[in-house]
Amino acid sequence: MGERLRDKVALVTGAAQGIGAGIARAMAAEGATVIAADVNRAGVEALASEIGATAWMLDVTSEDGWAAAADHVATTHGPLSILVNNAGVELVKPMTAHSLADWRALMAVNVDGLFLGCRAFQPLLAAAGGQGRPASVVNISSIAGLVGYPDQLAYNTSKGAVRHMTKSLAIEWAAHGLPIRCNSIHPGCIRTPMLEMAVEGWVREGSIPADDPWAAVASLCPLNAVGSPQDIAMGAVYLASDEARFVTGIELVIDGGWVAR
Question: 175-215 pLDDT, tens per residue?
C-alpha cells in the first residue's frame, strides 16, 4: 500500500466499473478510506469488497440521494478530503435525433449530478481542508469537452460544462477563502465498457475494420495506443494528493496526444 493519500477520505461516483473503478482502486492502494458510490448496487458492492471500501448506492441525479450520502460520510467519517465526480453517460446520435428527454436525461447525470455533489459536500470538504492541505474535488470531463465530435452534441456540451463548472468552482471557493481545490481530467480513448460499446457500433457501421478494431482505434492516437482506467486514475491520485496543493482550476488532459494534433 502507498502513502500518498494516507488519512484522507475519498468518495468516488460511478465507481462500479471503468474509470471510476480504476480511480477507487488506485486511491485505496494509496491509503485513502474510499466510499465507492454507484447506482449499480451489485457492481459497486463487488468493487468495494475487492478493495476494502464502503459501497454506497447513489443516483447522482437525486438531491435527496446526495444529502443522504453527505449525512452518511459526516456521521461515519467526519470531513471529506476528496470528491471524485466521475459518474456519466453518453449519447451517440445526430442532433436531429436528440429528443428533449434524451438531452435532459444526459444533462441530469453529467452536469446536474456534479453540481449537486459539490453543493452537498462543500461543508465537509471545507472542514477537511486546512494547514496548507486543501481538500480536492476532481471532476471527470473528456476531450469531448475541449473539441467537437460529430453525433454526440449532448455529451460534448455536458463535458464542456463540466470543464467550466470546475474552473468556476475553483475560483469561487478560493474567493471565499474555502480550502478546497477543484480540477478536471479530460480522458481520451480509454478502454472502458462505454468505449467498448462505441467500438462495437463503429464495427457495425463499417467505420473501422472488424478483424482488429482496437488497432484501428489506437492508430487514431499519436502514441498509437488505447489508454486504460489506470492512466486516468494516476492523474486523479496526483490531483487528490498534497503534491497538488497549489493546483486548482486546471484541466488535465490524459489522451495520448489526441488533442495536441
Answer: 999 999 999 999 999 998 888 888 888 788 888 888 889 99
Between CA 33 and CA 228, with CA 234 as vertex, the angle to 5 degrees is 115
Residue type, 98: H
Tens of pLDDT, residues 20-74: 999 999 999 999 999 999 999 999 999 999 999 999 999 999 999 999 999 999 9
For residues 241 and 236, what is the distance between their CA atoms, to the nearest angstrom? 8
Residue 155 annotated in active site: yes
Question: Do 172 and 180 form a contact (C-beta atoms < 8 A)?
Answer: no
* Fold (topology level) of 9-190+227-260: Rossmann fold (3.40.50)
This prediction has a pTM of 0.95
Which entry of 56, 66, 121, 155 is annotated as an active-site residue?
155
